[in-house]
Amino acid sequence: MTSQAIAYGLFGLGLVVLFGIIIIFYYSKKRHKKVEEAKYKMLDDED
Q1: Quick one: which of 11, 14, 23, 42 has the fewest CB in 10 Å?
Q2: How far is CA 32 from CA 38, 41, 43, in A?
């Protein structure tokens, strides 16, 4: 394997890991209330 192939593979693996971390962070139970709050605030009647 050439160094370019190794670098390309590590870069791709890094992107996959970063994507997984973002997904886990966004869907964590601690953030659930904050994420859902915006949806219900939009439907709330201000009158």
Answers
A1: 42
A2: 11, 14, 18
Q: Comparing C-alpha atoms, which of 45, 25, 44 is closest to residue 35?
A: 25
The pLDDT of residue 21: 95
Tens digits of residue pLDDT in 3-36: 999 999 999 999 999 999 999 988 887 877 777 7
The 3-class secondary structure across the chain, one letter per residue, is: CCHHHHHHHHHHHHHHHHHHHHHHHHCCHHHHHHHHHHHHHHHCCCC
Task: Tell me how far apart the alpha carbons of residues 41 and 9 are, in angstroms, rounded to a whole number.
Answer: 43
- Please list, in sequence order, all residues whose beta carbon lies within 8 angstroms of the beta carbon of residue 25, skipping any fewer than 6 positions away: 31
